[in-house]
Amino acid sequence: MKEPLCPNYYVAIMAGGVGSRFWPGSREERPKQFLDILGVGKSLLQLTFERFLPIVPASHIFIVTHEKYRDLVKTHLPEITDNQILGEPSRNNTAPSVAYTAYKLHGINPNAVFIMAPSDHIVLYEAEFMRFIHRALRFATNNDALVTLGIRPTRPDTGYGYIRHEGDESMHEPIFKVKQFTEKPNLQTAEQFVASGNYLWNAGIFIWSTQSLIRAFEQYAPDIAAVFAQGKAAFNTPAEKDWLNSHYPMTRSTSIDYAIMEPAKNVYTVPSAFGWSDLGTWASLHAETEQDIAQNVIVGEVVTEEVTNSLIRMPAGKLAILRGLDDFIIVDEGDVLLIYPKSKEQDIKKVTEYIKREKGTHYL
Predict the structure, then answer these.
(1) What is the pLDDT of residue 131?
(2) CA 138, 113, 35, 84 torsion: positive or negative?
(3) CATH second-level architecture of 9-278?
(4) Which candidate, 205, 219, 182, 194, places its Cα nearest to that of 269?
(5) Measured between alpha carbons, how far is 18 from 363 in angstroms, rounded to an integer?
(6) Any idea where the domains of the chain sit in the sequence?
(7) Which residue from 126, 159, 124, 118 is spatially nearest to 38, judged by alpha carbons?
(8) Quick check: pTM over 0.85?
(9) Are 14 and 118 in contact (CB under 8 A)?
(10) Residue 43 has what pLDDT?
């Protein structure tokens, strides 16, 4: 049965990153959240926005991004207002952006409970996703709790952070207290985590009331809380942008995990399974996209012979003929051609750092 829309529910979509591991497709001026990465005619941001419409009306969805992407957000989501775009004047990691969102939404509705979600995730089973989200929303509404969706791991993946809980997942609608967060482990540690049955992948999807979150900032990151508390009168008014420009860059650059989730004592997780993937890299796109008989994912006009397990993206009007490749990423963006072993894709970020140093920012 479809859940009724609750007037206290809101969604904040994080859409300010550059997506450097998706270079050369993702660029500083047009990062991956604004690209049709999946080849379905919609950007990742549009797909994420539409995913939450069964939970909240469009007027309750806010986009947290860098100020330089404000016009791009309006182009992709013309149905939202300027006040629904939270334009950060500087990149200070996720803790300040989450605090900004909490104080802004609290000014709109002191009883607000909101979902904070990235703009670049895949969800294969929308109905299951809704079920877990509503479970978390109900718990966050009725308890002083900071809730995160934990994904039941299907493999010992070293690319994800892990959440340790102590609970029995056979219980009805389980919600467990979080014991520990662990950043990306090595393979041996990841194998131990998965075998134990007490660890979940950290999807970076949070659910909390503005009241609980603001209290957490006041207790665990009082310096950040103090900055945004000063802006209460400016938020949701024409004075907001000027206030942000002068105060936001003063905030400490730190992640929400480090500033709040790790030290807080009221963190809970909802064990979930809904066909989730963090589209963080070309390899993850290859893994989550339908492959041909040779396990290739091909976009564009491409002729292959003895090419296997590869991701190939060519621009319109260009024909590629490839032979004798296995496990490669091949992305042609016109001014940049990337041919790189898929197994080494974590090094692409280092490549972009080299290019910035030796060639400047033109290709980034």
Answers:
(1) 93
(2) positive
(3) Alpha-Beta Complex (3.90)
(4) 205
(5) 13
(6) 9-278, 282-359
(7) 124
(8) yes
(9) yes
(10) 94
What is the pLDDT, as a whole number, of residue 275?
86
Backbone angles phi, psi at 30, to 5 degrees: -150, 80
Q: What pLDDT sits at residue 168? A: 63
Token output for 90: 């500087």
CA atoms within 13 A on the CB side of 181: 23
DSSP letters spanning 171-226? SSS--EEEEEEE-S--HHHHHHHHHHS-EEEEEEEEEEEHHHHHHHHHHH-HHHHH
Question: Splitting the chain (364 residues) into consecutive groups of 10 residues, what average pLDDT does each group show?
Answer: 77 90 86 88 95 96 96 97 96 96 97 96 90 95 95 82 76 81 84 85 93 97 96 95 96 94 93 84 86 93 95 92 96 93 87 88 86
**Which parts of the chain are beta strand (E)?**
9-14, 61-66, 85-88, 113-118, 121-123, 146-151, 162-165, 176-182, 199-209, 267-272, 276-278, 297-299, 301-308, 311-313, 319-326, 328-332, 337-341
Q: Classify residue 290 by its DSSP letter.
A: -
Give the integer Cα–Cα distance in Å for 346 and 171.
38
CA-derived radius of gyration, the chain: 21
Give the residue from 262, 246, 245 showing the smallest Cα distance to 254.
262
Q: Return the pLDDT at 84.
A: 97
CA atoms of 196 and 149, how far apart (whole Å): 19
The residue with tokens 């001026």 is 29
Bridge-partner residues for 163, per DSSP? 181, 200
Tokens describing residue 147: 């809730």
